[in-house]
Design a protein that fits this description.
By secondary structure, this protein is mainly β. It has one domain (2-57). 0% of the residues lie in helices and 62% in strands. The chain contains no helices and five strands. The termini are far apart.
Length: 60
């Protein structure tokens, strides 16, 4: 597992998330641990290295 920090697109708080590098492409929705709003996550790994991480407001 890889720990990754990012800002919530709603409340702008820093969030820590554990990411699983065993799947190259990942897309899912997870609630912010601070404000509970849904965040759309798009994550890419290559050779177990994080190459892309996007967290966006699903209401955009």
């Amino acid at each position: 597992m890889t720990e990754h920090y990012f800002q919530c697109p709603y409340c702008w708080e820093s969030i820590s998330m554990l990411l699983d590098p065993s799947r190259k492409e990942q897309n899912y929705i997870e609630d912010c641990e601070n404000c509970c709003n849904p965040i759309e996550l798009s994550i890419s790994f290559e050779k177990a290295e994080l190459i892309s991480f996007n967290a966006k407001n699903i209401e955009q």
